[in-house]
Design goal:
- The protein has 172 residues and is α+β, with helices and mostly antiparallel strands.
- It has one domain (3-125): Gcn5-related N-acetyltransferase (GNAT) (Aminopeptidase).
- 35% of the residues lie in helices and 35% in strands.
- It has five helices and seven strands, in the order βαααβββαβαββ.
- The chain has helices spanning 13-28, 34-44, 47-55, 107-121, 136-144; strands spanning 3-7, 59-66, 69-78, 90-98, 126-132, 148-157, 160-170.
- A seven-stranded mixed beta sheet has the order 1-2-3-4-5-7-6, sandwiched between helices.
- A hairpin with a 2-residue loop joins β6 and β7.
- α1 crosses α3 (47-55).
- The longest helix has 16 residues, at 13-28.
């Protein structure tokens, strides 16, 4: 098994869009209406939006490769790029997704460790993320990795208001 992590750049835009659509669909389509899924996918993962996010200085994207194939990706935000005001001592994991076919190989842990490495190199004291309250597998994974629920915020899937738990891990 070969696992590599590579930072994304603007040349990866279409590949990033493709994996974003695929992993978000695999994760959430069975629990949301097709209309709300399509509305969210079009808003969040259109090429203009992804190019803007890739060009944001305080955000970074990474692909994880499993045996030389893109298996998932990570997006982290710092400072003003965070989706919630958590201060300059925090790093946000905004997205961490693994294709279904590559799950259960420890790739999420690789990406989480990459996020923690970036946080420590940037002298951050906390790492946090939002996870849908109905995504039980992800919540269990984050708890196992030392995250605790510290709050909640609203997330809109199309026109449906949903609740994301905010989970935080303090770095030593």
């Amino acid at each position: 098994m070969t696992v590599n992590i590579k930072q994304c750049n603007l040349g990866d835009l279409r590949k990033l869009q493709e994996i974003s659509y695929e992993t978000f669909n695999e994760t959430f389509k069975h629990q949301n209406s097709p209309e709300n899924m399509n509305a969210y996918l079009e808003r969040a993962f259109n090429l203009t939006q992804l190019e803007k996010e890739l060009s944001t200085i305080s955000s970074q994207f990474f692909f994880v490769y499993f045996n030389h194939e893109v298996a998932g990706y990570l997006k982290v935000n710092m400072n003003e790029a965070q989706s919630e005001e958590m201060g300059n001592e925090s790093l946000e994991i905004e997205r961490i997704y693994i294709k279904k076919v590559f799950q259960k190989h420890g790739l999420g842990k690789y990406l989480l460790n990459k996020a923690m490495e970036i946080a420590m190199e940037s002298n951050k004291k906390k790492i946090w993320l939002g996870v849908w309250e109905k995504n039980e597998n992800a919540i269990a994974f984050y708890k196992k990795m030392g995250f605790v629920q510290t709050g909640a915020h609203s997330f809109y899937m199309g026109d449906e208001k949903q609740t994301d738990f905010i989970m935080t891990k303090t770095l030593l």
